[in-house]
Each structure stands twice: as C-alpha cells, then as structure tokens.
Amino acid sequence: MKTLLKLQILCLFSALATLPAVAARTDTVTVRSVSMEREIPAIVIVPERADAGTPVPVVYMLHGFGGDYTTWPGIKPALPEIADREGFAIVCPDGGRSWYIDSPQDAGSRYETFFVEELIPFVDGNYPVVAAREGRAVMGLSMGGYGAMTLAIRHKELFGAVGSTSGGLDIRPFPHNWELDRLLGGQDENPGAWEAFTPINLIPRLENGDLRILIDCGYGDFFLDVNRAFHERLLQRGIDHDFYLRPGCHNADYWADSVDYQLLFFRKFFDRRAE
Predict the structure, then answer these.
(1) Are 169 and 227 a contacting pair, CB within 8 Å?
(2) How far is CA 25 from CA 83, 150, 250, 271, in A?
(3) What is the three-state SS of 2-25?
(4) pTM, to two decimals
(5) What is the reported pLDDT for 212?
(6) Does pLDDT of 208 surpass 70?
(7) How many other CB atoms sit within 10 Å of the CB of residue 174?
(8) Coil, helix or strand for 169?
(9) Distances in Å between the alpha carbon of 3 and those of 10, 17, 114, 189?
(10) Residues of 199-215 as b/e, b for ≥16 C-beta within 10 angstroms?
(11) Do residues 146 and 199 touch, judged by C-beta distance below 8 A?
(12) How many of the other CB atoms lie within 10 Å of CB of 17?
C-alpha cells in the first residue's frame, strides 16, 4: 500500500512538472481619461521577462460592440501563457460602444483621443514595454477590428503592425446597426461623417510598407463582403498584407482560433525588429 502511495505521489509530481509554468502578471488597472472626465478600466498582461527589467513589445487587443475589457481574456483564457511564451505584453482596454473614435455627435465619446493621448502614455510610463512603433501593435474583433485598423492607419507613427478579425472595415452598408447613427448621425443627414469614419476610405493614406497588416474573416460572417472589398482595395493600391478566409462565423469560437494566428503574426513582426 505504501509503495502504491509513493508511486501515486511520484506520478502527481511528474504530471505537475509537465504543466507550463505561467509567470505572467495580470493587472486590472484604471486609466484616467481627462478627455472624457472618467476612469477607463483595462487589463494588462505582463510577461515574466518584462518584470525582469527587459522592455518587451506590446499588443493592444480591442473588443467588439457589447463587449468590455474582459472580453478577450474570456475568449482566450490562455493569454497569460501566450504572453510568456511569445515575450510580449498584452493590453485589453475598455472601449464601451464607442467604435474607438472621437464621435462628431457625442462630445463625451472621445476614445481615439483616450487611446492615443492617455492609454498608450500610461502603459509606456508604467510598464517596461518598447515605447516605439517597432514594438507596438494593435488588433481587434468586429468593432475592435474597425478600431484597430482606423487607429493604426490614422496613427502610423505609433503602430508598426495591425490586425483585424471579423472587422467592420466598411460601416456604410450598416446604417442602422450598433449605435453608429448615435456616434455619426444619420447616414442620410451626415454622409460626410460616414465617409470619413469608414476604414476602407483611409487606405489612400497608406504607402506600401507603412504597416504590417493582417486581415481575417470567416466564410459565414456578415462582414465577409466588406473584408474582401478591403483586401481588394489594398491590392489595387499595391499595399502588401496578409489576408485569410477560414470556415467560421461572427462568434467567439472563430475569434478564439483567430487570435492564435494574429499573435503569431505580431511575434514575427517583433522578431524582425530585433534582428
């Protein structure tokens, strides 16, 4: 009996030894937004090597409409393990239902200003991250894919790479959805705002090589056509990018798989920076 017990204990220790050691630290923080006069929550995942004093690259991950700063960790609970393995920090900010823009209709919704002038300086100032575009990327799902692409193109000086999964890369076919008319005004009354705030219309701001770009979408996604159109427009402009279509719909199962491809894409981008 004692021999059996010893064998069971040895097997337990052997099994524990094979489990991945997760040393990444996960912080829940609030960032003061002077522009919106309130506190905005975020989750910051810091890999072990950053706490050892080595600056690491950082990926900002934006949630979709109806989500919040806990959405990505909920979809992908392994984010701390991924951060440790890949050696970069991950920041998941709360974007409300803002589409990550400074709304021309709602003066209290200034999320582009928050992101660029308040969140990034907060992260750069409080965590050992690479405070340069070569070490900074942004990605998102759905509304977050819209936000990531919009922020990256409008602020190429801040980001070296961008990813969109199931992104709303052209909002004009959806004039009555997801509170867009609250943020932009009605499409018929304010067509200029809808044109100015749709990502596909920002492509002329890009020169080839400005950004490393990854776009993916599921075959069953209602944003499939606008993602294909965005890809075609990039091709027409001679902008190199990665574009993937995979089986799947506009849901968490698709995004849980997609994020693996997205983060691998960023890790390769960061590796080239270090060469």
Answers:
(1) yes
(2) 10, 29, 30, 22
(3) HHHHHHHHHHHHHHHHHCCCCCCE
(4) 0.88
(5) 96
(6) yes
(7) 15
(8) coil
(9) 11, 21, 63, 81
(10) bbebbeebeeebbbbbb
(11) yes
(12) 8
Backbone phi and psi for residue 141, each to the nearest 5 degrees, phi listed first: -110, 140
DSSP string covering 134-151: GGEEEEEETHHHHHHHHH
Q: pLDDT (tens digit, 9 = 90+) per residue, 129-145?
A: 999 999 999 999 999 99
For the chain, the C-alpha Rg in angstroms (whole number) is: 20
Span 249-254, average pLDDT: 93
- Alpha-carbon span 271 to 205, nearest angstrom: 26
Which among 75, 237, 54, 243 is positioned nearest to 162, based on CA atoms?
Answer: 243
**pLDDT for 19 beyond 70:** no
Average pLDDT over residues 209-230: 96
Q: What angle do CA 111, 113, 115 make, to 5 degrees?
A: 65
| Domains, the chain, ordered by start | 24-274 (3.40.50.1820)
155, amino acid identity:
H
Q: Indicate the residue type of 245.
A: L
On the question of pLDDT at 4 being above 50, the answer is no
CB 166 within 8 A of CB 221: yes
**Counts for the chain of helices (H) and strands (E), in that order:** 11, 8
Tokens of 116: 């660029």
